[in-house]
Write a structure and sequence with these properties.
Helix content is about 70%, strand content about 5%. By secondary structure, the protein is α+β, with helices and mostly antiparallel strands. The protein has one domain. A hairpin with a 2-residue loop joins strand 1 and strand 2. The two termini are about 20 Å apart.
Length: about 270
């Protein structure tokens, strides 16, 4: 069984394979440091950053075009982006790692960075898929409770605003946001360092990585709560701007999250399994 030893400011973890991993406390000011480093990575990898940002922009536009007259589905799919954002940012983590190692950004390599640990990445994707599947069943229940299903957009030109300005739509959004924040917080706690750790260490299992991720969040509740709020707010801005802001938001958050991981987690090179 993995062991955890707590000291002031640091928390030592011994994995089942004997690796020594240290998680460290962080401060509120570190968030600005992560974002600054993320911005610098964007400047050093403009082409890759634009590619990943454009992919997210296109995805948001396709969702809007597909569900313009189905606001409940639109908001449901929008939360999928928030929940999947750590997984979608895998390539960005890889770009940041390349820059950190003094390498030239390699877009093709970053797109397949998960291949060296494919089984654990697949298990993590499955875990997120289960949470999303449950969430996809919760949203219709919320709509049924507040009778929002009866509120169909009669005037297509009114779009989502016709839904948001209605009484039923506002009631739905209240329940939706409360439940959505709870689910998104759970996903954040389980994933904040999981994928970067799977990229960094191919010897750690996904379950152990998620447990460590949750422990890191509990060790830094205030800072992690603010970091999650910033991530959620920026992704929301990216969505409500029809994806245009995602050109900057997605790469910035992806790179910043990698630097957050580096400040939070350290693997003892003496115990690392090659």
């Amino acid at each position: 069984m993995p062991q955890t030893i707590h000291h002031h400011g640091i928390h030592e973890h011994i994995t089942e394979k004997g690796e020594h991993i240290v998680s460290k406390d962080c401060r509120y000011g570190d968030i600005g440091h992560w974002l600054k480093k993320g911005w610098m990575d964007m400047a050093h990898a403009p082409a890759a950053s634009l590619f990943y940002g454009a992919v997210m922009t296109l995805s948001v536009l396709l969702v809007y075009a597909s569900f313009r007259d189905q606001p409940i589905m639109m908001f449901q799919v929008a939360t999928f982006f928030v929940m999947l954002s750590p997984f979608l940012a895998t390539g960005l983590y890889a770009i940041s790692r390349q820059l950190q190692d003094g390498e030239k950004p390699n877009l093709a390599a970053s797109m397949f960075a998960w291949r060296h640990n494919i089984s654990e990445f697949a298990l993590f994707a499955l875990a997120l898929g289960v949470i999303i599947a449950i969430w996809s069943r919760v949203v219709p229940l919320i709509a049924a409770v507040v009778k929002s299903n009866s509120l169909l957009i009669v005037d297509p030109d009114a779009g989502v605003m016709g839904f948001l300005t209605s009484d039923a739509g506002q009631t739905f959004m209240t329940y939706f946001l409360v439940a959505g924040v709870f689910v998104a917080a759970l996903v954040f706690a389980l994933s904040v360092v999981t994928i970067p750790l799977l990229l960094r260490d191919s010897n750690i299992g996904v379950v152990q990585a998620m447990i460590l991720s949750f422990e890191v969040v509990m060790e830094n509740k205030g800072v992690m709560a603010l970091w999650a709020l910033i991530i959620g707010s920026l992704i929301t801005i990216g969505i409500v701007t029809f994806g245009i802001a995602m050109l900057i938001v997605m790469p910035l958050l992806g790179y910043a999250s990698w630097h957050a991981f580096n400040d939070l987690i350290e693997i003892d090179p003496k115990t690392e399994i090659k």
